[in-house]
Structure formats: structure tokens, C-alpha cells
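Give me C-alpha cells for this 367-residue protein.
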Amino acid sequence: MALRTEELMLNMGPQHPSTHGVLRLVVTLDGENIIEVQPDIGYLHSSVEKMMEHRTYFQNVSLTDRGMDYLIALQNEEVYCLAVERLAGIEVPERARYIRVVMNELQRIASHLVWLGTWGIDLGATTVFLWCFREREMIMDLFEQVTGGRLHHAYYRIGGVYADLPEGWAEQCQRFVDYFLPRVDEYDALLTANPIFLARTRGVGVISRRDAIAMGASGPVARASGIALDVRKEEPYEVYDRMQFDVPVQSEGDCFARYRVRLEEMRQSARIIRQALRGLPPGEIRTRVPMTMKAPRGEVYVRTESARGDLGIFLVSDGGETPYRVKIRAPSFSNLYALTEMMKGWKVADVIAILGSIDIVLSDVDR
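Here you go.
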């Protein structure tokens, strides 16, 4: 006689350290097998889009740091400033565009280090957590010297950046890149051949290329499923069209593939930083724009490649000092939706490994 079991509905979160924020997963189980997963979101809703509609274009720069993905503050500022600049027809000086590229890629590395370190903790690898945060502290120090902040910066400005790089900073940044690349090799050596890590990640949480497209996945999650799409290549912004770099792509679509993509992305970001520092031109860092600027009537949609994927912002102007409408296209939101397909058929013990592999930030999901 076959053993019959009843379905169990299990709540994971919203107060659970491995949900990486206030996320509630409603997991339906048959024994230890996952039948269905439904993410329950909204615990970190900040109304940032509505707040932006009641503040001037300049005031909104600091809101992007805090109301969107807090691990990629500079990349949030990037997409917002680009949108306003295109809407208002503002030209950014060449030096500022290079500086933005350097800061964007440092931010990407810092974000991936947080992901790799915390995911390592989820899987029981304490060493990689300590190593990743050691390197991230160095990036925070570099940020602090330029922007005055470590997590929230308000450094980009409509028309450029707030201040020039301090004397000697470019050389210090270059030394960090030289130091950092061998550290990525250490992460690789520590984890890639580790039998426990492989058992927890290889072949686990698979999402096919077709499903990833259907779910709107982007960034490393999509590229790990064979979708060779990177906004920096497809629709270059700033000076990315002058940079030589590769787009890491894997075909397996599992947790291990997502890990491999992000590991290589850190190497490619270091490559971009070296080129941008080498080509950094002299000159102005900001176009003069009045603090009470009024954007012309119209609308614009701008997309960039953030650490989590395709980050877009839609602005509508009625000719006033504040945006009439703001809508943010958050990559974490779409990637979280893909989780519903990744987890079906796996064990309850795999939930944390799969969730951690997509690298969501809840303030980006809820906004």
C-alpha cells in the first residue's frame, strides 16, 4: 500500500535571515517536495515613484539611492539622470561620462560581492562571506573618498557628477583592481570544485531559456539560461560603446550557472574600470543646469544594465519642475516572478539555495 501524504502550506519569512529582506514565500509541500511557491511581497513598499512626482528633478536624485535598490545606489542615480538628460536634451561632459562608468562598475562589483558572500552563508560557506566583505570594504572606502558616503551617495547630478575625483584616486582605484582580480580567482578555487557547493547548486533551480524569456528575467538570471542580452551592448549609454568587454553567458540555467555568470561579470567589470581610467579625459565634470529646471513636455524611457539586470525608468513631463509620472522597471521584480518556475519539483532544503541564486533586493521589488 502506497504511503499517502497531505499537502502542507509552509510560510517562509517575512522574518527570516535567508530571504534577504522582508519576503514571505508561501510554499506548498508534498512531504519534502515543492509543489508550488507564491512570493508575497509589499512589506517594504516605499512609494518612491509617487514621492518623485512631488519633488523637483534635482531632489529626486537622492530618492533613487534610498527608495530603490539600496545595493546599487549609483546605478539607480545613473538611470534616473540619463532619463532626465534625454528628456531635457542636456549634454554631459566627456569626463563625467567616464567617471560614471568607473563608478557604475565599482558598484556592480560591490553588489556582486554582497550577493556571493551572503549566498555563501546561506549554503554554509563562512569563509567566502568574510573574503567578499573584505574586498567590498575597499570599494566602500573608494566611494567615500569621492562621494562622502558609503551606501547612499547622491553623487550623480543632472548634467554630470557632483565633484571631480580626488587627487591620486584613479591610481588608488587601479591598485584595487590589480589586487581584486586574483581574489576572484580565490573565490573560484574555493567554491567551484567544492563537492558540497556543487551538490547544492549544480542542476538545482533550473529555468529554461524559453521560460526565462516568458517570465521577463534579465541580467545574470537570464544570461545563465542562455540569453545573451546586456543593455551595455544592445543600447550603449555613457561611453560603454568604447569599452572592450565580454558578456558572460551559460546555458544550464541552474544555480551554478548563475554563480558562474556573476563571477565572470566581476572580472569583466574590472576590465572596464581599467579601460575607463586609462581613457579618462580632462575637462569639466558637470553642465550648468538650474536647480529649478523645467523639463519640456514629453516622455522618455531609459534602460540600463544594473547588477541585477535590465533597470528602466519611464518619465512623463508636463513642462513643470516636477515629473508628472514616474514608473520604474525593477529587474528584481521580474526575476522574483521567475522563482515560481525554478522551485517546482525541488526539495524544501533547496528553497534557500534557489532564492539566493537570483539575487533579489526587496526594496527593488516593492519600491
